[in-house]
Amino acid sequence: MLKVVKGCTEDGYTRISLADTTRDLSAIQLVTKGDCALLAEAKNTEEEGGHGL
Questions:
Q1: Domain locations in the chain?
Q2: Rounded Cα distance, 35 and 27, in Å
Q3: I want to staple 50 with a disulfide (CB 3.0 to 4.6 A). Which of 11, 14, 36, 45 is the partner?
Q4: How many CB atoms lie within 10 A of CB 16?
Q5: Does this model's pTM top 0.85?
């Protein structure tokens, strides 16, 4: 998971940028649907002693 900074919202879209400006946002896969399920699974895996997704 990466920390993002929320920008302006227009027509249902919200601009984001990475808090870590050394990373390239265009080279990162973003989750746009199913994010809550993915986060829950990652947290559950961490609690079981795994490394997450």
A1: 4-47
A2: 19
A3: 45
A4: 13
A5: no
